[in-house]
Amino acid sequence: MRKAICIKELKSAASLNETAFTLIEVMLALSILSIVIFLSTPAFQIMLDKRETNASLQMMEWQVFSSQFKKEIRNSSKAEIVSNRLLLTKSTDTVLYEKYESSLRRRVNSTGHEIVLQNVAAYSFSLIKNAVKLTVRDLRGKEYSVTAYFYGNGGNGT
Q1: What are phi and psi of 118, to 5 degrees?
Q2: Is 94 helix (H, G, I), strand (E, B) or coil?
Q3: In Å, what is the CA distance from 6 to each residue of 1, 19, 52, 151?
Q4: How far apart are CA 25 and CA 41, in angstroms?
Q5: Three-state DSSP class for 76?
Q6: For residues 144 and 11, what is the distance between their CA atoms, to the nearest angstrom?
Q7: Which of left, alpha, beta for 104 (phi over 0: left; psi -120 to 50: alpha)?
Q8: d(Cα 38, Cα 46) in Å, to the nearest integer?
Q9: Is 96 helix (H, G, I), strand (E, B) or coil?
Q10: Whole-prediction pTM value?
């Protein structure tokens, strides 16, 4: 009888041991959890830095656009502002800068659809003596401005 009770106790202790966690299992679970947290932290950092990356991309896009815009003004013989759109005359071509949705686009001879600047909330052209000034506000509210001067043919904006 004594053996029967001991065997029952051993069986019940063994079944309890199978349902409980051992120290090795807990340490293994904690190490897996720490590895997952360690690897996911840089991913969260990259997601948070995306805003700064977009802002720097917008600045680079502006710099490229402004250099191309200055070159186009230099090569133009005449500039006019019609309904807040810039119309440039180059020998036989006319180049039009206008807003299209949230972009600034360029059209040559009223054809084409070349996006030259993205994320534009508002813009304004103004004619200054021998120059065209463009002011742009992006979707984040930051303002950019460029003044492009005429050379050679002297396009006086008239």
Answers
A1: -105, 170
A2: strand
A3: 9, 20, 70, 106
A4: 25
A5: coil
A6: 79
A7: beta
A8: 14
A9: strand
A10: 0.64
